[in-house]
Amino acid sequence: MEQRLWILKSKGNKSAFGGNAGYADELESHYVYNTTVKNHDKIKPGDFIVIVDKKYIKGIATIEEINVTSDIPKKRYRCPECGTQEHYTRKSVSPKYKCRKKHEFNVPDEEDIMVDEFKAIYSSTFIKSEPKTSVKLLDNYYINRNIYYSIQQAKTDIIRDIYPNAFKPGGLHMTKTTSAVKINISPYIPSVTDSREYRTLKSAVRPKQDKFRSELIKFYGAQCMLTGCDVLTAIEASHICPYKGEKDNHIENGILLRRDLHSLYDADLIGIHPDTLEIFLDPSLNNTSYAQYAGKSLKFAAVIKPSQNALNIRWQAFLEKNQVLLPA
Q1: Residue 172 lies in a domain
Q2: Which run of H or E residues covers position 121?
Q3: What is the mean pLDDT of the chain?
Q4: In a domain, 177, yes or no
Q5: Are 161 and 259 in contact (CB under 8 A)?
Q6: How far does Cα 87 stand from its chain's mean position?
Q7: How many contiguous H segments (helices) and E segments (strands) does the chain have?
């Protein structure tokens, strides 16, 4: 049977999202949900889970068993205009609630229902995360993400990338490319205007992202430039200057990073010194497993180097966002 991985969001009794009055979770031992929760019928014993709250990853585990209690009374709350349960509380704005369809209201419709309640038990397999490990690390792993869902499937690559010593599942490895390829390319010039296409809600489209990654792997080799990780599915193409259009998919504007490090770089929690290629960290990472990378340098093939201009721009953005002590 396929072993899936789920991200379980604990909202507790102070749920930010509507539809329920909270759950009695004990994050290091069990997770409680019911038949009104999306994907409640898909999660199974033996599946991997990552437990999170609104800001941080709490830990990872394997579900040992799922206990079911039938006919539990529950209050459910809906938007009075469209009936959706998917709404959230706004602490400093009035009206107090806003649903996913943008209706605003102060008093939700309330109904009493009967549900089956599930308790996923994982106390003996729980591995606690480092303190204040940001949930942003998981952004690139979701499968069909919906911010309103408490239970969402994600790629099992999370285990290999963020918890490599936890379960050690098998993975596809690709031989490193050791020889540099000589090419003639025009210098990279960072984009000034935003030429991306947008979907609804202004979600930018990134055409040819796979091609960009393939070209970087061709010239730099199939490995993370910081860690040397050679697991192909864990390696992503990271833009130095943020993507604003097709011309930003330029060899000189890209580096290859392991997926979790890519997320940190995109969030400007990791900075790359433009002259030395040395890694600097936001102070929030100093007491985490990522502290080992501070002071290390990226490794590049001899022929191709990143754009100095792009590195300078990104470095300044990193310094503006973070209080980093630089060596004298």
Answers
A1: no
A2: strand 109-121
A3: 81
A4: no
A5: yes
A6: 22
A7: 4, 15
